[in-house]
Each structure stands twice: as structure tokens, then as C-alpha cells.
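Help needed: design a sequence for this.
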């Protein structure tokens, strides 16, 4: 595997490590919580928005993500906002027209109940995470427009011409990351589908007879409708289907399409399970999210100074509902890599005036981080391509309900290897094999 820009040197910092994080969303906040736990580290988070973003739809929290959050905060904070329903978090997959269950996606039986998958709303989840970020660590209305890497560190340049220097820069600024475009200049592109999403009070749908008390997805070729309670008295609707580039160009991220967009959905789903139409009839409007895509980074680090996490590294465009969980995994792997690269003060062969400081081998930490995440993320990207082949095979039977269901069930995957990926175990394996892969680098 090529290791461009991964130095074999051992540049160590003999003062508090200066860490800058771009982005204060779900992944950036999680990284701030984790990295602030390190000894002798000063973490500063920059968010271009004037405050926490209140837009967003539901979030699927999967086993891997919940295990990581349990390491970083009191998991009860998350349990209070999480919805699992009658089937302990299991997704029920239903036929688009009849609503009959054709597949299920449960967590593995050995998983503790507190870690089994569930659903929540992005806003309360972000509130919980931000409440655990050290006070004063986040600076809002700070828009980074460029950076320079020197021997002294990464010089981050802001739109007001100010700059700050860090020993390590963590890019958690999402799909449209300006830092990523420096290294992968290919433009973000529309991938052909739009997600329509809305969260609203569940009291609107309580009168609907036969409404499933679980998290369900109705499937048709290339189209999907998700309905679920989300906890805290909220209900969520998400649907994804193809729209022309011309129509998508009239939208933007989280655009409220009003009654016109809602009429579009009602017409689209008129022949689907009547439950869907009844839910849509209770809604007043709907938000649209054009699903853009960008190339995934093959190497998650640059210049021994910059680490990419979350959608800034691997924009999933909603695939598997795993974006947040994968970002949490990145944050944990980076934390453990820096922790392992730290030399405690008692072990430092330094003068007495320096004994209160820790040392960090940042290049080694970034190599550990990259190796821990590289193989897993590569497998996820490959699985997305394989799923495209399966979808084509299933769609060939679109006009034969029985055969379509048979093919769907034949190719349906629970993907527990992804949802329940053990990031800590992967890091331990990476550490144990370091002499082998480091020598090849």
C-alpha cells in the first residue's frame, strides 16, 4: 500500500500538543471529546456557522458507534434520546406495496441491550455531544479558507486573514471539506438521488391504525421509504429516490420544499402501502437533501500533520445509515493512536523544567490511525459497489412479485461486520502488527 506523505521520522512535541479540529458537527464534537482526554493536549474546534446547526433528520446509531460513545460519555445520556421500538432496535424491511415484512436486520444476539442499534434525531444527539465538549473549546463563526504545512506545524488561515498554528489538524468538516479538496481536487457531484426528510411530533400520527411501532423501511427498486418514532415524542420520515439533475439543481442541502414537495411525495407513493400515504397526509412540508458524492480518501493522513475523519474522509451519502458511526470510529482510532504515541512524563529523559510535559510522536500516531481504519473503510467502499450489482439483479424481477422477493431475500445482507465493527480490537491488532506493516511502508 502506498504511503505517500507518511513520514518514517519521529518528530516529537515537548510541550502541550496543539490540536485544531475543523467542524463542530457530530463527528467533530466526538473528536473534541476524545482528544481532550489526552494528557497535555490543547484542543480547539473551529465551526464556520454562528452556532450549533439545528437542521437535520434522524440518525441511526449502530452497535459500533454506541460502544464508542459509551467509552467517551455517560451512555445514559444517549439512551434517553434513543428509540428502539417493539423489536429492540431491529429494522423491519417491508415490501413496498403490501407492507409485509420480507427481511429483518437485528443486532447480533450476543450484543448487550444497551448497545443494540436505535434511532434518534440529529439535533438532540448533537446537543448531548456538545454538552460533553470542554467549555470554550469551540469557536463559532470561524471559517477556515486555507492552510500551509511547515516544520512548525499546520498554519490554518481564516477568512478574516487571521491564522493559527497547530501540531495536528483534524479535518471533520464533512462532504464539502475544503482541506480534502486540496488533496483530492475532484468536485463533489450529484449522485442521482434526493433524500426527502422530516422530523415532526409523533402526536400527528398516533391516530393511524396499523402504524408499525418499530423502525421500518419499505423497498422498491432503487427507492426506499423509512418511517420510525425517534424518541422524545418525535417521528421521522426519510425517503430516497432518483431525481433528474435538472430538478436537483433547484434544491440545496436541507431546502424546505413546502407543500409542493409534499405533493410530489404523495403522488410518488400513491401506489405504495397505504400506511405511507396516511403518514404523508399528516405532514405540512418536507425538506430535500440532494445526495452528492465525492471520492473517498485512500490515505486518511497527510504530511504527518493532518488527519481526515468522517465525511471529510469517506462521504457515504447516507449508505447504510452509517456515516455518524463510521465517523465516531475514526475519532476513537485517532484518540487511541495518539494515546499510544504519548511518552508519559515519568518516562521522559528531559530536564526537570520539562518533566510536567508529555511527548507525542505525531507521525507514528497518524500511521497507526491510517492503518487501523484503511482496511475497514476499503471494505465498506467495496461493499457499496457490490450492492449496486445486487440491486441490478433484483430489479430484473420487478414485474414478478414472488421472484422479486425471493431475489431480495437471497441477496439481503445484515452487514453486522460493518454495524458492529470493533474499532478498539482493530486498533489492538494494528498495534501488534506494527513491526510488519511499518517495515513495508
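Sure. Designed sequence:
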Amino acid at each position: 500500500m502506498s504511503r505517500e506523505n507518511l513520514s518514517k521520522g519521529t518528530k516529537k512535541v515537548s510541550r502541550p500538543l496543539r490540536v485544531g479540529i475543523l467542524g463542530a458537527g457530530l463527528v467533530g464534537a466526538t473528536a473534541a471529546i476524545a482528544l481532550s482526554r489526552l494528557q497535555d493536549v490543547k484542543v480547539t474546534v473551529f465551526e464556520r456557522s454562528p452556532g450549533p446547526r439545528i437542521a437535520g433528520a434522524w440518525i441511526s446509531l449502530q452497535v459500533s458507534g454506541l460502544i464508542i460513545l459509551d467509552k467517551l460519555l455517560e451512555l445514559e445520556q444517549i439512551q434517553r434520546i434513543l428509540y428502539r421500538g417493539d423489536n429492540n432496535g431491529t429494522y423491519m424491511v417491508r415490501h413496498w406495496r403490501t407492507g409485509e415484512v420480507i427481511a429483518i436486520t437485528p443486532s447480533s444476539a450476543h450484543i448487550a441491550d444497551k448497545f443494540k442499534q436505535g434511532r434518534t434525531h440529529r439535533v438532540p444527539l448533537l446537543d448531548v455531544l456538545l454538552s460533553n465538549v470542554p467549555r470554550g473549546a469551540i469557536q463559532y463563526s470561524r471559517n477556515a479558507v486555507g492552510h500551509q504545512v511547515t516544520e512548525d506545524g499546520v498554519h490554518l488561515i481564516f477568512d478574516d486573514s487571521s491564522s493559527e498554528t497547530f501540531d495536528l489538524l483534524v479535518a471533520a468538516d464533512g462532504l464539502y471539506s475544503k482541506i480534502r479538496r486540496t488533496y483530492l481536487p475532484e468536485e463533489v457531484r450529484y449522485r442521482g438521488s434526493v433524500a426527502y426528510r422530516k422530523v415532526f411530533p409523533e402526536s400527528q400520527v398516533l391516530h393511524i391504525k396499523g402504524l408499525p411501532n418499530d423502525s421500518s423501511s419499505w423497498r422498491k427498486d432503487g427507492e426506499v421509504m423509512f418511517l420510525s418514532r425517534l424518541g422524545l415524542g418525535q417521528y421521522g420520515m426519510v425517503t430516497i429516490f432518483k431525481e433528474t439533475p435538472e430538478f436537483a439543481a433547484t434544491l440545496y442541502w436541507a431546502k424546505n420544499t413546502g407543500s409542493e414537495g409534499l405533493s410530489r411525495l404523495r403522488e410518488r407513493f400513491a401506489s405504495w402501502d397505504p400506511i405511507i400515504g396516511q403518514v404523508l397526509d399528516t405532514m405540512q412540508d418536507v425538506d430535500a437533501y440532494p445526495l452528492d458524492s465525492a471520492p473517498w480518501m485512500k490515505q486518511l493522513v497527510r504530511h504527518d500533520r493532518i488527519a481526515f475523519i468522517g465525511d471529510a474522509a469517506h462521504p457515504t451519502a447516507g449508505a447504510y445509515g452509517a456515516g455518524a458511526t463510521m465517523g465516531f470510529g475514526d475519532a476513537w482510532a485517532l484518540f487511541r493512536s495518539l494515546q499510544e504515541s504519548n511518552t508519559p512524563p515519568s518516562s521522559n529523559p528531559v530536564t526537570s523544567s520539562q518533566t510536567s510535559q508529555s511527548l507525542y510522536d505525531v507521525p507514528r500516531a497518524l500511521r497507526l490511525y491510517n492503518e487501523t481504519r484503511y482496511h475497514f473503510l476499503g471494505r465498506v467502499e467495496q461493499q457499496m459497489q457490490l450492492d449496486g450489482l445486487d440491486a441490478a439483479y433484483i430489479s430484473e424481477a420487478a414485474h414478478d412479485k414472488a421472484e422479486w422477493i425471493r431475489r431480495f431475500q437471497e441477496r439481503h445482507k445484515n452487514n453486522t461486520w460493518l454495524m458492529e465493527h470493533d474499532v478498539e480490537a482493530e486498533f489492538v491488532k494494528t498495534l501488534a502488527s506494527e513491526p510488519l506493516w511499518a517495515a513495508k511502508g
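Confidence is low (pLDDT under 50) at residues 1-10, 351-355.
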